[in-house]
């Protein structure tokens, strides 16, 4: 079975809709020039990172997969994007927080064994992870986003992955530290937008369709987990083909997994009940 398309999913942790639309000048420039489309997407509840990561990849709610907090980390039972792409014969890669390796490959995370692996038979074939051990208010412990983007680019060119996810916690950590109405956040968005803009055209030139989105938003005080447009609503930028919904349609985060699989021509698991938003 040959896959129809290759897809990269970029998750900018904790970037709310309002910040994306105001501060991501390169992404917005591509929307303005017609090279990208943008919709609003609403995260699951709780709008907690781990819960959202698991829902983004499985297409089921936290009430179903049971990842209800950042403290409930285990190998998730449901089928997910990695397992479905593998079932279709595709190669997968991840450049993310180590939670992804635990949810979709194996748990607990063994820092030496699992920090980096290339495994032919695993759901995640090419994993490059970081743990953010020691993360806190005074020290973000996040890698440089340019390093993460370069690592993903390496996986696309050296290992020819069909599906790749990249997750960066920079903006979420900045939001928890500084909130959103401040120069620190303006600059953080400006910096990550420019770093992303350096690599994104290369991914497209290499034949990938690309989604740039977030796992959840944040309140102005830098909080998330609960209900509300500020905590739940994020931008979803699409660089690829297919017919999407009209501008202004609110997407559901549970649509992400079946949408990616249908773009790729991989089987949608029967647990993924939401409709793909790209036809
Ligand atoms: Zn998060």
TrEMBL record:
PANTHER family: BIS(5'-ADENOSYL)-TRIPHOSPHATASE (PTHR10151:SF120), ECTONUCLEOTIDE PYROPHOSPHATASE/PHOSPHODIESTERASE (PTHR10151). GO terms for molecular function: hydrolase activity. This is Nucleotide pyrophosphatase. It comes from Kiloniella spongiae. Pfam families: Phosphodiest (PF01663). InterPro entries: Alkaline_phosphatase_core_sf (IPR017850), Phosphodiest/P_Trfase (IPR002591).
